[in-house]
């Protein structure tokens, strides 16, 4: 039996009541038409009103507005991460930033480039942000500073060292007497020196280069941007106490081939020629004129040196300042020529005698310096020798390697230094030399000593290392008869 739910059975087709379906469809269309204007109004309202986020903690609405990085706001502050030599104030000055000035993305990009071009940093990165509670930007620079800093030197610059330093300190907030030994850093300082010279009426191109000083120390030298010639020959004029050829022989090997600047050459003169004159008592020797003459037959220059030997000095007074020794004992040991010609060769021998005494008494790290004070009008000199003994080391133990038990015992009997006594730093090598020279024992062969110092307990352990002579018979090489 079929049951129809449609009240108008004649319009029913199968199980579908078409009149009811039409009524339902019309109702749906009317409902949709009524909702459309409301949805459009809500959509328009949402476009006009900003999105709000309600924090759970306060229940208050926070307005979030996206910021265009090109929009300018005052610079609130500069922060630095990774800086050691340069703080926020110095980095801001290097970058050309001023707190309170209008800034935006382009401002910070240009500041970043200035820091990169300064040559003071290996890497530079930056970020900026605008806090929601403040009307301005905070910029943070992440930097890695270069570690290549050397003292500045000037060569042939028509200004005093102090004047150039003062100008660089004024122009560069990070200047402390040293320069970054990077190409951008040296170019930057060279440009500043050019500006300084131009302000004084001198037009000059300046360049910076890393310079190796005598003794291996490095510096950053600024000099005119002209080629530097090398030294091919050296000649001396005006010397009598020491022949010019002898002075040339002393200096020629050191000077030949080095790049010539007057300051550098005078350093070589002081290191090589001054000791020769001081050894014979001419402590006031001077070199008033140094001239570099270009050579036509070969590349380089010949340096002509004028010598003023001066008078021979007399050693008027000598003193020795030490903590652990009586002054008279050390003066008697040094045998300094007081009241006689101030021959510095004898003074050097006296200082060596004091150094040897300190080492024999266990003062292995002692320092001995001398301070001459010249009285030029009277041609006299006063000498003060300053001794810093340092800690005294004691002998702890003797070790022997490379010998059999019997021979080792014989060597120990000859060893005369007792444990707990001041360690004579000269004794181990002296002991081995005596054994070999006097041939006290056969078959010991080569030997050397090794000293191990304990810096905490200040004691010394000596190891004697022997390499016995190989007495085993060598294999015979068969004779080969000619064909």
What do these coordinates show?
The protein is built from twelve helices and 21 strands. By secondary structure, the protein is an alpha/beta fold. It has five domains: about 75-145, Ubiquitin-like (UB roll) (Roll), CATH 3.10.20; about 150-225, Ubiquitin-like (UB roll) (Roll); about 230-310, Roll (Ubiquitin-like (UB roll)), CATH 3.10.20; about 315-390, membrane protein fhac (Ubiquitin-like (UB roll), Roll); about 395-465, membrane protein fhac (Ubiquitin-like (UB roll)), CATH 3.10.20. Strands 6-5-8-7 form a four-stranded mixed beta sheet. Helix 2 crosses helix 3 (about 105-115) and helix 9 (about 325-335) packs across helix 10 (about 345-360).
Short description:
With 483 residues, the protein is α/β, with parallel strands linked by helices. Helices cover 32% and strands 28% of the residues.
């Amino acid at each position: 039996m079929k049951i129809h739910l449609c009240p108008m059975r004649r319009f029913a087709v199968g199980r579908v009541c078409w009149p009811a379906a039409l009524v339902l469809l019309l109702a749906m269309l009317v409902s949709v038409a009524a909702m459309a204007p409301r949805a459009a109004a809500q959509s328009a309202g949402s476009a006009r009103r900003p999105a709000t986020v309600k924090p759970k903690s306060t229940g208050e609405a926070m307005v979030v507005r996206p910021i265009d990085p090109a929009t300018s706001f005052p610079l609130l502050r500069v922060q630095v991460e990774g800086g050691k030599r340069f703080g926020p104030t110095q980095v801001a000055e290097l970058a050309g930033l001023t707190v309170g000035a209008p800034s935006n993305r382009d401002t910070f990009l240009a500041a970043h480039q200035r820091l990169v071009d300064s040559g003071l940093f290996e890497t530079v990165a930056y970020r900026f942000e605008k806090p929601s509670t403040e009307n301005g930007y905070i910029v943070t620079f992440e930097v890695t500073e270069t570690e290549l800093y050397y003292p500045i030197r000037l060569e042939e610059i028509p200004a005093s060292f102090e004047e150039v330093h003062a100008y660089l300190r004024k122009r560069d907030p990070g200047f402390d007497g040293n320069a970054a030994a990077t190409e951008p850093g040296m170019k930057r300082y060279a440009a500043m020196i050019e500006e300084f010279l131009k302000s004084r009426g001198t037009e000059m191109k300046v360049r910076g280069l890393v310079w190796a000083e005598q003794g291996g120390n490095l510096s950053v030298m600024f000099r005119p941007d002209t080629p530097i010639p090398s030294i091919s020959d050296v000649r001396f004029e005006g010397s009598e106490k020491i022949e010019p050829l002898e002075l040339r022989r002393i200096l020629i090997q050191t000077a030949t081939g080095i790049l010539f600047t007057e300051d550098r050459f005078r350093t070589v003169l002081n290191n090589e020629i001054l000791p020769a004159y001081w050894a014979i008592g001419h402590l006031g020797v001077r070199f008033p004129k140094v001239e570099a003459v270009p050579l036509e037959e070969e590349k380089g220059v010949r340096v002509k040196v004028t010598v003023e030997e001066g008078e021979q000095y007399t050693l008027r007074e000598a003193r020795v300042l030490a903590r652990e020794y009586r002054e008279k004992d050390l003066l008697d040991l040094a045998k300094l020529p007081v009241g006689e010609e101030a021959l510095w060769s004898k003074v050097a021998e006296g200082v060596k005698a004091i150094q040897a005494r300190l080492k024999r008494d266990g003062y292995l790290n002692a320092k001995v310096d001398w301070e001459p004070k010249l009285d030029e009008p009277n041609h006299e000199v006063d000498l003060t020798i300053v001794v810093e003994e340092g800690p005294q080391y004691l002998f702890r133990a003797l070790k022997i390697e490379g010998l059999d038990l019997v021979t080792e015992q014989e060597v120990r009997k000859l060893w005369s230094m007792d444990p707990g006594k001041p360690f004579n730093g000269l004794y181990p090598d002296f002991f081995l030399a005596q054994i070999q020279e006097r041939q006290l024992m056969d078959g010991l062969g080569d030997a050397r000593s090794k000293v191990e110092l304990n810096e905490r307990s200040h004691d010394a352990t000596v190891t004697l290392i022997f390499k016995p002579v190989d007495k085993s018979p060598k294999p015979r090489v068969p004779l080969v008869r000619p064909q």
